[in-house]
Batch of 2 targets.
Target 1
Amino acid sequence: MSASPAGHGLGFSDPERENALLVGIIDAISAGPELGPLTASVARLIVEATATDVCFVHVLDDSGGALTLAGATPPYDNQVGRIHLPVGDGVSGWVASQRKPAVIAAGKETDPRYRYFPELGGQDFTSMVSVPMESRPTGLVGVLNVHTRQRRDFTERDVRLLTSIGSLVAGAVHQARLHRQLAAREHAAERFAEQVIAAQESERRRLAGDIHDGIAQRLVSLAFHLDAAAAAVLGDAKVAASELARARELTDMTLDEADAAIFGLRPPVLDDLGLADGLASLARSIAQLQVRVASSDARLPEHVEVALYRIAQEALQNVVKHARATQAKVELRCDDARALLRVTDNGVGFDVATRSGGEGSYGLRSMAERAELMGGRLTIASRDGLGTTVTAVVPIPSA
């Protein structure tokens, strides 16, 4: 719809048009909690009702430090989500920081607050009004702009009515933001549950494999030798003695396998020594390279200690298997909020970007998943010939 002549208001003097706009906005708010459809509908309704040429709806991001274009009338709707403006920058940023309307009838290029966006056709429009979208319960949620190609001397009533519309829309935008945040948290919770189940199943498969390939096979062999010894007792005593010796050897090996399986479920060293000394014990158990340990003596919650110990164990196993290193260092640092574990080696390194599969990739995924299950993160820094650094940072739950 074309702009009204210079000096005219926004057209709200017609009660029917004003009522139609308010009803339309209420319908848009009631249509659903999605921010995109809401802002697109509001922008379209405002342009139709106010005889302006374009409307932009900028929404404050979760940090409160920048505005993002969330809704626009065609042909600028293809820029939604692409235009970002720090609070305080440009006319919209000024309105967001000052929480005051801004009116520019002409000559916006000379206004020190103005910032040119070629993607939004700034050169095609002469006059503009920018108002904060805020209400008392929600606070500031964004900025609403309207522009006209022809000069428009906007009145105080125009600004008040646009501000009222912004206040009405603010509550809906706030609810849409809360809905998005809730949906993101639900998705994160679902992903967390999936990771927990996957980790449990992976651990069960590993333990089942250890028992099947180790303990079960040894017991079968042990039964065979005992049967052979029992038969030999009636004949050759030398054969009986040999079979019994072999049975005893298999018994010892089976006990070792059982101890290893138990250790796979819960490292007893953590119960006895704690994480710091447990890491030192782990380092001493690796004969293939020299491992130095620098750690804090603070005791952490049990599940945090297990996760960090397993990450260190997997990282050192990767060093032994793949790095061709001679030295490694394990660091553990803790404060009131988080624990940091870092494993560094002087090995051959690798290209992290291309290590998406193949040998060693399962171990990397396993470490990352353990950190993520704790609400933390794992990063890997490596370059060919320059060694590898694995860093895990996990939060420490408050008492």
Target 2
Amino acid sequence: MESVHGLRAARAQGRNTRRLVYELLRSRVVSLELPPGTPLSENDLAAELGVSRTPVRESLILLGEEGLVDVYPQLGTFVSRIRERDVVSAQFVREALECAALRDAAEAATDDDIADLRALLDAQAEAERRNDTEGFFRLDEEFHARLMAASGHGDAWPVVSQAKTQLDRARRLSLPLTQQLALLIAQHRAVVDLLSERDLDGALDALRTHLRLVFTDVEKIRSRHPELFSDADTPLQPRRASRSRTGTPRPEAD
């Protein structure tokens, strides 16, 4: 359910409205459809989604608890800027859990597991050929989830997925970088090749290198779009609204 149409169809099937609104808004924030700094109006969102203000307000509260939106009294609610501390924390959780799972996968992974991973690599290469970054991102998620499942700990993937929310916003910004998709696919392939050879130390080194690439990418992105980031551990209060090239108002950086 990634669209207003999908939300309405799901509501017609009896699904919880607040949950649907939350999922849709969260998807928009993480996918950067709503970029850092975007102002969020309860009234406008309720009108667009065809719901009352209550599920929108409750959803924004939940997103605030995740650090995805910031609320400023007398000013409004804004999509949070990406904070370095959040990226570092998310990376720590992700690396710890995925590397722990890979250790077990070195013994538990079957030929079918390896075949599934290689099929995902082929699909990623096709997405790269089509320059389909959004499709690649979905396949990247599937790859890491499948890699964790090969360890016998597939049920732990939702924990990783939830923890790395802030990281995902930074990663999506990095995907358009030149040759980025080809590099990520090559790193994925190295992990699978080493796993298939039962080379645990090599596979772990390859996975860590891959997961830590985001730090280099973040610095490149910050140099181009400093307005999307915050160096503070706490939210930066916008002084006044400005307009982006697309006409969408967003707060200026302090």
